[in-house]
Amino acid sequence: MGSTSIDRDERKKERKEIMMDNNKEKSSLFSRRNFITKLGIFLAGGIAGHSTSFASTPTPTAAAAPPLPWKWVKLDPLEAGRRAFRAYLEHKG
């Protein structure tokens, strides 16, 4: 009987050691040092990619707008409706 209780104690110790080793492996995967290193690499890549986009894209220029205020023109509602209906039929929606 004495040997079986010793065997059980040894097994418990072995299980605890295995569990502790597993926890150490898991914690090493998610350490602060690894996180900060990966974050730094990510940020450096983003900055490098962002700076190259400035060099490759030209800035678009817009045409000059006509002077304001524009002249107000009175529209005939019936004529506008007819034109809209014709445009709808000609362009199929």
In words, what does this structure look like?
This protein is mainly alpha-helical. The protein has one domain (2-90). It has 3 helices and no strands. The chain has helices spanning 2-29, 32-56, 77-90. The relative contact order is 0.04.
Shape: elongated
Kindly, what is the distance between the CA atoms of the first and last residues, rounded to a whole number of angstroms? 92 Å
- Report the sheet-strand fraction: under 5%
Q: Output the structural class.
A: mainly alpha
Q: Roughly what is the average pLDDT, rounded to an integer?
A: 81
What is the makeup of the main sheet?
none
Provide the domain count: 1
Order of helices and strands: HHH
Kindly state the percentage of residues in helix.
over 70%
Low-pLDDT segments, ≥5 res:
none
Tally the beta strands. 0
Rg (C-alpha, Å):
38 Å
Question: Count of helices?
Answer: 3
